Amino acid sequence: MFNVPICLMILVSGLSSSQTLPDQDLRLELLPTGEKLLHWTGHPELTYFLQASPDLQDWTWAPNIEPGLNGPMSYEVDGPSAGGFYRLQYTDQAPAPGETVGSADYDGDGLTNLQEITPRPRPGGIVGYTNLKPNIQTNPLRKDTDGDGLDDKWEEDHGLDPTDDGSRDINNGPNGDPDGDGVNNLGEQQAKTDPKNGEDFPIQMYTAFRYAYGAGDTVQAEGSWGYYTSHTYWQPATSTQSYDNYFSLDILASKASATAFPLDPGPLAQGQPLLSTGVYSHCLTTSDGSLAEGKIEQKRIWIKAPAKPELQEYPFLKITEKRNPFGESPATTLSSEVVIMKIQPNQIFSDPFDLSVIPDSVSSFWMAASCRLIPIKINIHEPNKEPPSDGVLVKAGEKLVYEITNESLPPGISVTWDYKILRGDGFFEVWTAFGTGNKIEIATQSAGIFKIRAKIAIPGQESPKYLYYVRERDDPHGKDSAGTMNPKYKKGQIQFVGVTEGELQLGIVKKARSFLGSTAYSKSVSVVATPTLTAGIGSNKCNIFVYHMATNAGASIPLDVAGSPPRAFDWYDSKFPISGWAWLFSTDTVKPGAIVSRYMEGGSLEDIFLDWDVHIPHTSAHVGILDYDGAWINAGPRNVNRYPHISDAAYQEAHYRKANIPPP
Predict the structure, then answer these.
(1) Among 141, 209, 242, 628, which one is most buried in terms of CB atoms within 10 A?
(2) What is the pTM of this model?
(3) What is the C-alpha to C-alpha distance for residues 463 and 449, in angstroms, rounded to an integer?
């Protein structure tokens, strides 16, 4: 509890610089009954947060948030009479429509205001640090509580302590590398990879340079064009610009250098990778035909990624442009193409790719040419939000942004967006176009599970390049009870966009996803299923998980006369009526939020189908909730996971039911 203060302070967050700070008149009142009240003058446009500390260092957030009132406000505090400190923090940020001061996220870190001030277990525990509190709170008015460049929610999601900038444990800070993959936490956050998975990190680019310099060399004038026909010199990237020991080269005769490129990154891999992907090459001429300055630069590029048993491919857009080196005129695209950098099986470095621009001519007084590689991938996200790390889930009618790169594409390159929709039998409908452009924003028209691709057409290339929406990381919940990963959920595999029919179905999926990894429904625990039913230790609880998730999201599922929810086989059996839930055929388009079930080995199919008019009780089945990508969210023997997928061979005969509520 809070101590009696010997000091009162007021901190301000979020007020515009032109706004006059209101007088809060913060004061303490000690009542004869021993109660202690903090008083201040409220303002309706503000939100108030209260903190207390025994020593001005260890601050604790009060367990509630006060929306401003127009007049006196107070808050009861308690604690021993030894003394302490209080401070009032306020901001003029306001909740969005439909939010409260508790459910809003003022600092935009992905945690609500109430979540931030609620004590929760310290990530990583307190082993070896006996002076630490077991629980933490974070600052609801600061996206990065400890100021280390890592967002609070990102740190908590990945088991890092958002209150430690690395000074206590380096693995919690921006330079920490808890998985030892060579990429620090800051780099993993920027790339949206897992800092605790050594096989999940961003590709890195390693580059070897070589240059050609010329000064005062002559050029041969042909009409209005100037050409290199004289000699200039190559030097290693590590050399200084000196004419001693240069290598002579006729640029038009050969583009090979006397300074050979290395065949592999070699020692480059030991240092910090160079992330620049551009090549700048220019030939500066004067009007009398003499060369004022010449510089040509070539690069050999490798990318590094985790060794995999299969071929890995990374697409880049290569663009060659003619431009004024001083930016006095817009660039003109000379050529563009999609190139694929490949990492062979069980290797960590790609095949080398040589990037060079040696312009034959210049068309104006100061002109140059440049060549650059743009990494291209599909990003799909809601407007004004970052792309999610594990796929997209929205309800029908909501807008999504589809983009393949943050950079503008040269004129002439066209992008067409296609989708395929997944059926309940695990197969897809045909590709259907739904938009054009490098970046489009469009509302979802219907519900379903969608595979997305972008078709990139480039002038001069006969066949378009297809770019698919793929997974950015391995799914941490895509393993079965034995720890085997479903290959569909590995990094680089097809990713999906899931669209629910409405808010109810969206809520069912989100509720189920919040339990991923939980052991609350494992066979090793006892669970109160309904007021009259408890599922004991050793029992499977997949049907209880479905019942709890759906009803907690607002759906209605009937109980039988004994107060039991439908069993797994009840969901599977087409002859068993479940009020409020409509039956779907396997060839139907299935939507996230549907209840999915399948027959399991151990029962007799003859018993099931002997008489279509009679429902035969049966328990050899499994049931779950359909996720955004066709995965089952289900309670397995050990935890809640997403291991099965409806396109897996054993699950293509699954049955489906949906809440029989029309979309809004």
Answers:
(1) 628
(2) 0.68
(3) 28
